[in-house]
Design a protein that fits this description.
- The protein is mainly beta.
- Helix content is about 5%, strand content about 45%.
- The chain contains two helices and 27 strands.
- The strands form seven sheets. The protein has a five-stranded antiparallel β-sheet with strand order 1-24-23-22-21, with no helix packed on it. The protein has a four-stranded antiparallel β-sheet with strand order 2-27-26-25, with no helix packed on it.
- The longest helix has 12 residues.
- The N terminus is likely disordered.
């Protein structure tokens, strides 16, 4: 019924309009005032999704792309045109035996070298690249040591083309118990520009969000199953992540009743981490100090910077697409 209502609303109006605001800003450190206006609102831009995810801002066209994973759809949102379907099916398209209910794509990233959209394709269990000239896909990687990946979840790409991605089993029916799961672990990977695939770590039960620091010397990885933690790795000159260690533990937030896991994240020009976790979007300094929480009031999946000048934070939170205007900006604006 939810899918039908969403389809009907799009057909009737052609777009979703901003409805109202949601949640609150919870300041824990005065340093948050340098990043977020005290009276900033978490604006709802669109709603009615099954599980919104993977936002990315497309600077060339001044619009946002994000996914609604179970309905296998990538949406486009812009200030002028509101909401429209960008890609459907976004992931699994051929056959009557999909691996699970999450058929679409998850994390999205614009490749800095060729400017193409790179997708974590849950349904097809691969990292793919969308060739928008003819609307075809190229599989960049779908196997590790001859075995199929689980269901790539999130990715980040360095300026010289190194791809880092996570591969939990969320796209598989039954997850770790799925008989078609070929890998015994859930990994974090590094794909070099020459096509070499390196396992960074297999020690996280559910590796999820992933992002690079502004200077690309550090790689942050979230864990969404078991302990709510983020790890940080040092990036060597050859692009290989090494020396993984704990960056932040949100266990106290979860124990206090805050809802949500450690999922997607982004980083601003000062190196502050904007990471979805228990309570909403956690704002963490480069020194792992919790400055505040953008509390959406619901499970929050991911976020990215966008807008003209990069001074807006777009948030995917369960059935919502939200936005909050900030005083900082994202990388590359």
């Amino acid at each position: 019924m939810r899918y039908f209502c969403l389809f009907l609303l799009v057909c009737m109006t052609g777009a979703f309009s901003q409805i109202n605001s949601v949640g609150t800003i919870h300041k824990l450190d005065d340093a948050l005032d340098e990043l977020v206006l005290p009276d900033a609102e978490i604006q709802i831009l669109a709603e009615g999704f099954d599980w919104s995810e993977g936002p990315v801002w497309i600077q060339d066209g001044n619009y946002l792309l994000f996914n609604d994973i179970p309905p296998n759809t990538t949406y486009k949102w812009s200030e002028d045109e509101d909401l429209s379907v960008f890609l459907r099916p976004a992931g699994y398209a051929i056959g009557d035996n999909p691996p699970g209910r999450e058929l679409g794509c998850n994390g999205l990233f614009v490749h800095p070298v060729n400017n193409q959209l790179v997708l974590c394709d849950h349904g097809n269990r691969c990292i793919g690249q969308l060739n928008q000239g003819n609307w075809t896909k190229t599989v960049l990687v779908d196997r590790y040591q001859g075995k199929r990946l689980n269901s790539p979840n999130d990715l980040v790409i360095s300026g010289d083309g190194h791809i880092y991605f996570t591969d939990p089993p969320y796209g598989l029916r039954g997850q770790d118990e799925n008989p078609d799961k070929e890998l015994e672990f859930n990994g974090v990977y590094h794909l070099s520009p020459d096509g070499t695939l390196e396992l960074v770590t297999d020690e996280l039960p559910r590796p999820n969000g992933i992002i690079l620091s502004p200077d690309e010397t550090k790689l942050y990885v979230a864990n969404s199953g078991g302990k709510p933690i983020w790890l940080v790795f040092d990036i060597h000159e050859n692009g290989s992540p090494q020396n993984g260690r704990l960056f932040y533990d949100a266990g106290e937030l979860r124990e206090s009743g805050k809802r949500g896991g450690c999922d997607g994240m982004t980083v601003d020009v000062e190196g502050n981490l904007w990471a979805t976790g228990p309570g909403g979007v956690l704002v963490l300094s480069p020194q792992a100090e919790l400055l505040g929480i953008i509390e959406t009031g619901t499970a929050t999946s991911n976020c990215c910077f966008g807008g003209v000048g990069g001074g807006e934070l777009y948030i995917t939170a369960d059935m919502y697409l939200c936005r909050i205007k900030v005083k900082t900006k994202g990388i590359g604006f």
